[in-house]
Design a protein that fits this description.
The protein has 330 residues and is α/β, with parallel strands linked by helices. The chain has a single domain (4-327), classed as TIM Barrel (Alpha-Beta Barrel). 41% of the residues lie in helices and 15% in strands. The chain is built from twelve helices and nine strands. The protein has an eight-stranded parallel beta barrel with strand order 1-2-3-4-5-6-7-9, surrounded by eight helices. The longest helix is centred in the first third of the chain and has 18 residues, at 23-40. The protein is globular and about 65 Å long. 46% of the residues are buried. The mean pLDDT is 95.
Length: 330
């Protein structure tokens, strides 16, 4: 049985825009958050690709990775993830090859196969609706672009070739778990929004893993929503910002991060409450003792090698305090 002290802790950042806040202020807060994360000993700081979502400022993911890496020194920085069907693999190879050249040994390239947006925006991104069906081939193409230099290749990623940027496969279902296992790649499951398939996907990944030049044994990471506070009562209060945001997502409304409220009563109906709570089924919320107990249970239950947390608290001070609480448990 693994203990919490054996498990690296990492963060997934969506650059959440607070209600009535500018994008510039949001990004400044995200960079400040990253600095504190590094100071606390966080292992990785990943940014997620989303498009046409009011309330999320991480659409230009590669640009933000560069900004975070420039403002930190040691922590690994990467994508959680780049939605590969939105981009030509050559472009991603060049972008991440450039990032690796600027910040050697610190860049992770997490890849997903979902669009990260709605169908209309997908078309605005010039995304072929069938591109996701070719995800395995495009991952392999990207690996070739980032692999050893081939002087006979007609198309080469410059920068990129020879960089061997670490590639992860991300998923919220079984597809990427199976592909990551077959290719011998590290795998991250999006338990922060898709708890339903977490156990099955992680078990499938471990059972079917084939050793590769990248990994000799499976390496799995689980994403979890985190609400860490000084007490369980305070955590319940702070969590209402996240509840309001998920409720807005389900209603198709803007995803502004709103201040916490004393009660959600009157803000949702019973069906909406059930849907939001199912969405956040793996949420880890509470004071230090409660957080520790929940994390120990999850690590033992899911047998993961690393945990990655979302930390969508409205108040920046509370968000930074949550990091200290989390890291004090290791």
């Amino acid at each position: 049985m693994k203990s919490l002290s054996d498990i690296p802790f990492s963060l997934l950042e969506l650059a959440p825009i607070r209600l009535n806040e500018s994008v510039g202020d949001t990004l400044a807060r995200s960079i400040e958050f990253a600095r504190h994360a590094e100071a606390c000993g966080i292992n990785r700081f990943w940014l997620a690709e989303h498009h046409n979502m009011q309330g999320i400022a991480s659409s230009a993911t590669s640009v933000l990775i560069g900004a975070v890496a420039a403002n930190t020194e040691r922590m690994r920085v990467g994508s959680g993830g780049i939605m590969l069907p939105n981009h030509p693999p050559l472009v991603i190879a060049e972008q991440f090859g450039t990032l690796d050249a600027l910040y050697p040994g610190r860049i992770d390239l997490g890849l997903g196969r979902a669009p990260g947006t709605d169908p209309l925006t997908s078309r605005a991104l010039r995304r072929d609706d069938m591109r996701a069906e070719h995800f395995p081939e495009e991952v392999a193409q990207l690996q070739r672009f980032l692999g050893p230099a081939d002087p006979d290749a007609r198309v080469r990623a410059v920068p990129g070739e020879g960089s061997r940027v670490d590639i992860w496969l991300l998923g919220s279902s079984l597809f990427s778990a199976r592909l990551a296992a077959e290719q011998g790649l590290p795998y991250a499951f999006a338990g922060h929004f898709a708890p339903r398939f977490a156990r099955e996907a992680l078990e499938l990944y471990r059972a079917r893993f084939q050793p590769s030049e990248v990994l000799s044994a499976p390496y799995a990471m689980l994403g979890l929503p985190l609400i860490a506070a000084l007490s369980d009562e305070e955590a319940r209060y702070l969590a209402t910002s996240s509840l309001q945001r998920i409720l807005a997502l389900m209603r198709g409304e803007p995803l502004w991060l709103r201040p916490p409220v004393e009660s959600m009563a009157g803000l949702w109906n019973e069906q909406e409450q059930a849907s939001v709570e199912a969405f956040l089924g793996l949420q880890v919320a509470g004071g230090p003792a409660t957080i520790r107990s929940k994390l120990e249970r999850l690590v033992n239950e899911y047998q993961v090698d690393e945990l990655m947390f979302t930390n969508d608290l409205y108040d920046q001070g509370k968000r930074i305090e949550a990091l200290s609480i989390l890291m004090s448990l290791r």
